[in-house]
Protein 1
Amino acid sequence: MSSTLLRVCPSELKIPYEVKRQRSCCMQLINKTDKYVAFKVKTTNPRKYSVRHTCGILLPRSSCSVTVTMQAPRDMQLDHHCKDKFLVQSAVARDGATMRDLVPELFTRAPGRLIEEFKLRVVYIAANPPSPVPEEAEEEDASPRSEVTMGYEAKVSSAFDAVSDSITVLLCSIKNNIMPFLVTMCSFASQASRCMDNSGAKPSCTKGASVVPTLVGEKVSTREENQKRLQQNMELLREAGSPQQGFSVMFVLLVFMSSVFIGHLMKHIKV
């Protein structure tokens, strides 16, 4: 029998079946008329299902959703066969009707009163469909790869940390030792250049010449200390597992700059 008041979708309630877990589904009620329509939802097993919006009034050409929640089942059913059913009753209400007008007599059959009924059966569906590939085989295949990958990543991470620490130590050593040395040498070069420019002021040159042995001795001792610290830093880099051999580009560049600067300075001193 076709319904003239309400359209109920879907035609059956498909609820996922999972042990010890609640599952829900929805049905849609659509008012096909230009009148106010009252509805009521019933079930053959009210202890097993809870219904939200068991009754209500639909405005003309409006719709609403009804949620059906199944209580968590305790046992597993192999065939997923269910005999439970739902019944949706609908009747014409007066214009402007509200929830206060929903009385039991509204759904009682009487002469001249149109009451329609729509039945829905409950169908259980699998909550977790089986995978085409067995999970155990996937885990066995994935375990060795994951262990190898994790071991490689751990080695790479430890080597990277060791190299980073060594580079940090080297940069700190350069900042604390080489930079003051270069600043001192620049200061000494500026004093020597001023001394040579002022050739008429012999006492100033004599004073600068007396300072030369002291500064040269200090720079030699400082250079020896810097070489020792750089050698220690290189040993730390080798212990960190760096596969490269020889001096780093930064060290060669610093030695080259220091040699050029010292050669230029000695040239000025001889002049």
Protein 2
Amino acid sequence: MLVHCPGRVRGGGPGRRTASPGICVWVGQPHSRSSEVSTMEPGRIENLSVVYQSQDFLVVNKHWDLRIDSRMWRETPTLQKQLRHHFPELADPDTYYGFRFCHQLDFSTSGALCVALNKAAAGSAYKCFKERRVTKAYLALQVRGHVQESRMTINYAIGRNSTEGRAHTMCIEGTQGCENPKPSLTELVVLEYGLYAGDPVSKVLLQPLTGRTHQLRVHCSALSHPVVGDLTYGQASDQEDQPFRMMLHAFYLRIPTHAERVEACTPDPFVPALDACWSPHTLVQSLDQLVQVLRAAPDPDPTEGSPGSCSTSTPPNKPPETEAQRASCLQWLSEWTLEPDN
């Protein structure tokens, strides 16, 4: 069923997602210096939204279809260019991009992204990610029917897809061409049932308990409920009439560093007032209540002897750190100061 909605793509395939002007609706109030951010307009240099700021960290509400940084796409907007435009005084000349991004979001994913403003802060944030002490939660709209279980743990190991024509994509263990699958866990809570452009969809809160590439998108697809607008992990039939964006949003982020607890909650972009195509009809779980639970939950305990540890000593009864693990860790830390040609 096709319903005309502002900003909806007609006949676009992969790599051709564009948004018509549609209706400009402004999202939330930024924490500090910022332009207002439209949910339907493409990202521009001017429309950066900051939801948390301290002496050591920024958390920005990244726009959908926006690269974090790029050495090849120099003429397109990137988050790095937005930060340089709004915060030139915070750019670090000792780094190639000027800013230290503590983690990644896919090009098509919007939401909370943490930026460290100095090397010490970057190291403390990295330690939290390494020890799995970071709490993250995402909002998504899932297509092809309603998710039947209101709560579930998705447990599919994820590996790289070696199938011809599927380079740079991931897959679940047991599928053809799946290489080196690793354990992957995602918690799912159904928030609402409704229709998107006339098709039945579920609005869900997703909490990744591991950090695999494309984990949430792969797990949703494995349930036969891919994310609305996902051109990579949705079926080909989904690409006939795509929405203006992929409906996956990094909603909540908490990084408990030793010096401060970085915590940010971004505005929910998947509400009817901001997207006329989304029409919820059944409330299953209140998002506000889940936010209170997230905020009140204790930080996860550090994972002792976790893979990738940068420690020089070996804890008792723990397997020694491999050269590959140590090299990977040191490469991550060195990227903040290396010049592009080094």
